[in-house]
Membrane protein (Coprobacter secundus subsp. similis), 477 residues
Amino acid sequence: MKQFSKTYKKYIALLLMAVSFSNCHFLEVDPIGKTTTPVFFSDMDGIRAALPGAYYMMFKYYNGELYVYPDVAGDMLVMPQVDASGDMVDQYNYTSSGDQESGAVGYIWSKIYEALRNVNNILQYEPELRAKFPSSTEELKQIRAQALFLRAMCHFDLCRVYAQPYTYTSDASHLGVPVLLKTPGADENVSRKSVAEVYSQIITDLNNAKSDFGNMARTDAYHVSPIAVPAMLSRVYLYMERWDDVITNATEVIENMSLSKGDDYLAMYNDVNVAGTEAVFRLSGLEKSQWITKFYQSYTSGAIPDDTLLTFFTDPDDIRRKLLVDEYTLLPNCQKYVSKNQGLTDSDKHNDPFVLRVSEMYLNRAEAYLNKNLPDKAAEDIKVIQARALGKDPAEITLEYADNEELARIIEIERIKELCFEGHRLFDITRRKKNLVRSSSTTSSLKFLTYPNDNFILPIPRRELDANKNMQPNPNN
């Protein structure tokens, strides 16, 4: 039998350690974990194995409730079967409770903190290894850069789900989430920081990642690379409404990467062998659970595009519509997580959720340009997105709008069409301070929600509140 390498053995050991933590709230520390972690990170094989382990933990929470929650709680999706036992029904009906440990409320919290624990272990032990193995300094810097980026993602995603948007208060002084730069001990009770403090740490980590990356060349879409940093900063600054910074960072990505076009656009969703030209960063689902696929393809507990979403596709040639309608039944059905490779076994089929792609950068920049009162530049970016969708040149596209308000609506609709079912919609509604307005076809018991509203965020899990007396609840707990 072929012998496993030391690095692979340590990778398996890391996954087993992660499983042992999977049912803990983030302040609980397994005594076995405390003993074995320093040993695990005592050499280069350990930290090399820890990095794929960290990506695996990131996939766990992206291939799950975190990724579908913003669409389920949004206004462009319908759940045909609204059964109390179905996945995400409480989030669809806005009846989430802090007691729901085995659902979105508990799972999003615990899965992200599992991922955060993994990246913080890398960041904690990396300096010791750099001192111990000076010849591996450059390799360790690249590992550290990726871990810093992933830590920024963890804090950003937690804050989006469990805290009101950045602009909810004028100075973002409202409650965010704990900022954890190391795994707290069993007797260490941490408190939530303000949203401003959380975002400050996110930006610090991203800028430090950029510094560590240096001139490193991009490898592939499935690992964090230097170009992912400005892409992520563009999104973070969009939420903060720092328009100049959105433009600067989005432009850096646009100038260095291109959009996927035609069949390649469809293939990056439906062909497991195609990462996509425009994929800045996505997470590999190879040989992993396919929860998102099951959710969107299940006729008993899944979800389909709302009629309102489909009416936005006024041109039948819009390639994006093919990802929202079953090609055989012609019925509404999300096709973004369906492997259509011929001859693949079920075990080979998988979905790789996008974290960042180039099209988002055009949409971010268009919104920023408009808020800078530069409508012509905003329109040019939207023309690029529409042209790709219709297989045309941007010069062939004409946008008709009477004023900035009408152009803002065009930008919003293009963002909906482009990014639907990729984990954005609810956050786009709340950061813009909009009301939630669902169509008459919704099966949800909740049709309308006025902004601001406490229900736009999930409650803190009850188990966390019980374990940590310093943890402040949300108003809807």
